[in-house]
Amino acid sequence: MCIRLLSRTRALVGWAALACILPRGVSASSVEVNPVRLELASGARGTVVMVKNQGTEPTRFQASVHTWAQDERGHMTLEPTQELFFFPSMLTLEPGESRPIRVGLSSAPAEAERAFRLIVEELPPLEPAVPTAGLKVLTRVSLPVFVAPKRRVFEGRIEDAEVRASHVRLRVRNAGTVNFFVRQARGHGLDAEGKAVAELGQPGWYVLSGGSQVFDLEVPSEHCRKLRAVDLEVETDQGVLRQTLPIPSSGAAPCAP
Fold first, then answer.
1. What structural domains does the chain harbor?
2. What is the mean pLDDT of each run of 10 residues along the chain (257 residues)?
3. DSSP E strand boundaries for 56-139
4. pTM value?
């Protein structure tokens, strides 16, 4: 799988190629990277990501590696690190040219999977650009890098599910040793007869080992007071988590603002 980016953006990697439509007057070089998710197995010396210049001009790129942490809303915190080695850190590619970046681990595997981000970003040209009427946008690609733990354990949980103020709130916790990706968190609202009265959904993101992600699913006001239960489903790349959330028959309070 590869990914092609035509604008400066955070890459939602691992699932599909992402193409951004730029407004008139804005141009950008195009870079292709393959694969879009790197995994370093226990005992492996390293892995390789191929970088290809899809543009029409020679382009310089810079690579860097960062530790990756995030909060329950998916906001990432990246810090430079030397736990991974990579080479080269700078490369210049002619149009259509490809070159590898080699990535490896400089320490032994830990009990839990470690997560990093490899960032490949376009640098401004050395020579002054010919003046144009448009704006050139530099490309930036952020790839997940996962270092396998000593033992792989998938354990996802739905916690703290509740209905309050016309919202179904839940937390998805990763109690395992490896990451998983939440494709969709869904809620099927049921009335007293067990009939579906509301379908709720929200896309997700990576949940790193030891981390969690919070979802807030809004229930349409015309359906909220009819709810007597919500069947929760969290679809991940490792399986589906399920839980039924009962709602007391005095359902007015959960629907109050």
1. 3-147 (2.60.40.10), 156-255 (2.60.40.730)
2. 40 35 42 93 84 92 96 95 94 95 87 96 79 71 94 96 92 97 96 92 97 95 88 97 87 60
3. 59-70, 76-80, 84-87, 90-93, 98-105, 114-122, 135-137
4. 0.82
